[in-house]
Amino acid sequence: MKPAMMTLKSYAEGRWVTGKGSPAEIASAINGEIIAHANSDGLDMAGMLAHARRTGGPALRHLTFHQRAELLKRLGQHLTAHKEALYALSFHTGATRSDGWIDIEGGIGTVFTLASKAKRELPNETFLIDGEVEALSKTGSFIGQHAYLSREGVAVEINAFNFPIWGMLEKLAPAILAGMPVIVKPATSGAYLAEAAARLIVESGILPEGAFQFVCGSVQDLFDHLTGQDMVGFTGSLETSMRLQSHPGLLRSAVPFTAERDPLNCAILGPDATPETPEFDLYIREVVREMTVKAGQKCTAIRRILVPESRVEAISKALAERLAKIRIGDPRDETTRMGPLASLAQRRDVRARIETLRRDADIVFGDPSCLTLEGVDAEKGAFLQPVLLRASNPDAAASVHAVEAFGPVATILPYRDLDHAIALANRGEGSLVGSLVTHDPEVVRQVIFGAGAFHGRMLVLDRDCAKESTGHGSPMPHLVHGGPGRAGGGEELGGMRAVKHHLRRVALQGSPAMMTSLLKSWVKGAPEIEKDEHPFRHAFHELEPGQSFHSAERVVTLADIEHFAEFTGDTFYAHMDADAVKGHPFFPGRVAHGYLLLSFAAGLFVEPKRGPVLANYGLEGLRFLKPVEPGEAIKVRLTVKSKAPRNADYGEVRWDVEITNTANEPVATYQLLTMNACMR
Ligand code: NAP
What we know:
The chain is an alpha/beta fold. Helix content is 31%, strand content 22%.
């Protein structure tokens, strides 16, 4: 069914607005019929930026990481509830249902993953402490500490046409988590799908006013108004990224610019993977999938197929046979395996690039000019057969290492040995992902250390992981998405590093007391708070960073050590055998077990009666610094370092613990984690 003509709007300064100029026409990829108009002429870009800075930014920065994560989770749920409306439009971009799944549910899944990681990995604060305290003075009265703060600007997202929803959500989620409002500009082709998702986001009312704005059409003079607090995340072609990256407004204000652009990803078949091995078949499946999913319009798709010279014939035949079975057709038809390209213009571009590739390679399968595809009108719809090429001289095939045909197109390149394969892989000058299909660890070692630095991500695929592998082409929200050189130079997206990328790291210097009060995390050297009552008697909300308990002393006797050894079975010579320990580089004689010291420490600081401490939940950063000999006394300092609420009933308390000897020298330090009830 043809959708009603859509006049796309932008969402600017709290209103949906139509551009005033003559609109760009957007056609359905299936039959070339015009289904949408887009135009952003007349939008006040400076006004949009000011609106985001004035309203969205402060509202987001007021929330903690956990509160922002909660907004994203709700947004993901809202989009999930309305996903069918998005699928209905997605078909017109040429996407089959499973292609659409990557874009729509892959995008929503990224939002959920980042929201849940943020709750687990970031504090329930508006800032993030980075790394350890740096001691900058002799007596410890002056220290350094890095912290991430929210930028006070706008995250501008410019997305490519191939994933209108995933592309938008992949960048939106970390920006919102970091407390930055976003202005999203989708590619014009496919903007109707991005606009539908934008409407869901706005209508949900989940994000604060000004946190989300949307430009349907050109960004006009937006770049002229950017400042050093803003940032740009771009996905698209090399040419556009170079043009935008060199914009004087960006250069003047040193606006961070992340580029994800057109790499020439490769897949290497290991020399061990003969046609009799499972790896051979895995390789064929992976290459065919990457060539045909989303009609090859994936930034992560395999473009260069690197195989041992002796296996070129077998690979060519196996790939051609599988490609011949791919049913090309209307993406709404469930039996269709590959839909059309995004537009007729895109098909023209891909055909032209195939012609360039043909200077260095011959076609093994597919006819780029074929218009007689069963069941579709390939004159009107942007259908294209998969095209497999083969370069007999891969070193001389300059175009194959430089030209991206953004469609179902890939080229077989024979290699002599692994060094040759690595050299060819690296001729791509940096890509998003490389795959290596082999079951030989030595091949893996050589290729990863030879080509790893040229790739953002490397998949090692073999029989052991194939069943659960997420595949060559799927960027995972947990892992780096981006690649060096030609791929744009990015490594910011993926996991919490994407959030950190949207924050600004500041080096703070001052006294331990000031840093403790500012960052709500006690630092050694800052004042300690001692109260009459043991801190274990205090409920979660009553505890404050710096609150300390100093224990009495306890002498560690030889009988204690022997008893502990017998009881636990730990009769290591350093605790039990004075002769064996003679001449030892660390121990002057028999010494106490480290775990004995920890156990005694617990006995010294614990408050035994039932109280707000619910459980000991682990310890971190344990270091044994000095041995304790029989007859020496130890004591413990226990100090509240920081607190992280978990829910209405309890929260995590992090205690700084130091065990010292009679000479007041630290013998062990660690951070103890307890769960404490909010009520006494
Ligand atoms: P494109 O033509 O470079 O366009 C990318 C985006 O830039 C679009 O939103 C486009 O808007 C916008 N744009 C173009 N000129 C602009 C200007 N002067 N000022 C501001 N924005 C401008 O790329 P595409 O054809 O959409 O995407 C295909 C390319 O993206 C492929 O090369 C592919 O490899 C790459 N890609 C890379 C990744 C990755 O993660 N590395 C992911 C997906 C795609 P209009 O559409 O309105 O012109």
